[in-house]
Sequence to fold (467 residues):
Amino acid sequence: MARQLKLAVQSLVRNEKESDAPRAAEDRGGRTAHFRENLDSNAGVTQAGRPPTVAPGVQAGHARPSYARAVAPSASTRRVANQGDRSLDGRGRSRGDGRLPTAAERVVHLQRQLASDRKEFDRRISEVQNEAHNQYSYMLHKLQLAERANLQLLEENQRMHTLVQTEHDRATHIDKEYAEARLLLDARTAELASVQVFIGPGDTLSERDVVKRLEELNEEIFQLSALMSDNVEFTTADACVERARKSVSKRLGQRVCDALAVEGESVRLGMLQLALQAAAGRWSHRMALQWTSLDGQLDDQIQDLYKIICADEGLTVAKRWQAITQKGLFKDDQEDIASFNSSLHATLRDVLVVARCEPKTGDGDVALAISEGIQSIVSTTLQLRHDASLGVASTELVTILPRPGKPYDRSKMLADVSGQQNNSDDIVGCGISMGLVRLVDAGLQEYTLVKPKVVLATALESVYVAQ
Fold:
């Protein structure tokens, strides 16, 4: 701005000089002549021998004006410079007289304009400084917040780094433990593979499957006994009666034999069905408990050995040994189906002989149905033995059929007595339907899954006593 002001002043001075050049030349000429006249008068010499003249406006006896005074600004000019030019407008032009402002007037105007511009400049500089100060304070506050946040992030980063390092150390430790466990597992897997033959597969059946198989067998026995008792005729033959009575008495008890010998045919037929059902149930129960049908003495020895293993090594080891042993022994069952059928048929035949009955002749369908019923009972009995021993290898499931003379326990048995009340001192006359129990603690405890059905001794006695 100062440079622009300087250039403006120089321009005004130059214009002033150009406009005042003719007048200045005239003034200089007059002043020169006047100066020369003064010089001549001082020297006492005139051009025509006349006395010295006095310049216009100068009285005689006064001192002559000097050259410096001649070229100095007039008093009016100085007054304008001191008081300022009040006749100029805002652009530095004359207000009303139509004349152009002089250089001094313009200088004064420019000085005043410079002072005003300087004040405006200072004001704006102050505003800019204040704004800059505010911006600086705001940015400083933002910087402090950013530094604070950065410090928090650094602390969080350090914490996360520590946490990551801890987790890394933990993962390394876990990997080490896993590697050790893997080595141990591989060793145990190798050992397990070596004894896999003994351990064998897990259970392939549930207890409920074995229960269903038992209920199916009981139903088949009941249907066969009903079919045979409905298709017999009485006879008076005494052949083999004594031998049959001994066999039936051994299996079913003396009370059953006495009840089969009553005179009333209807009562005898009812007792015949119960006796046939009890005989078939007893045969299936004995077969389900056998380990082998090859030799009765061998079977007894194997069962004794099983009890020893169960007592010394526990039920788990004993059951695995039983599964392995019976798996080989049961392979011969299919070869002995015919002998099993004959054995069951002979058992039922003894009951018919004791009751002095024989199957009706001339009805081939009934004979075929009886034969198929016997085969079905044999097949289901063998399947039940397989399921209880091999299908559920982790649990010892055993069929039960109370023998004659055993005390009656209503919590473990069902009495087939219609319209009669049983007492706590009742005893079993014979068992007619098998039950199923689960043995634990080497057979010391048992849990009943299916209650066996029995006929009380008092019920059998009431049959032949009434006769």
The two ends are 154 Å apart (CA to CA). The first strand starts at residue 232 and ends at 234. The chain has 14 helices and eight strands. Residues 41-74, 76-87 have pLDDT under 50 and may be disordered.
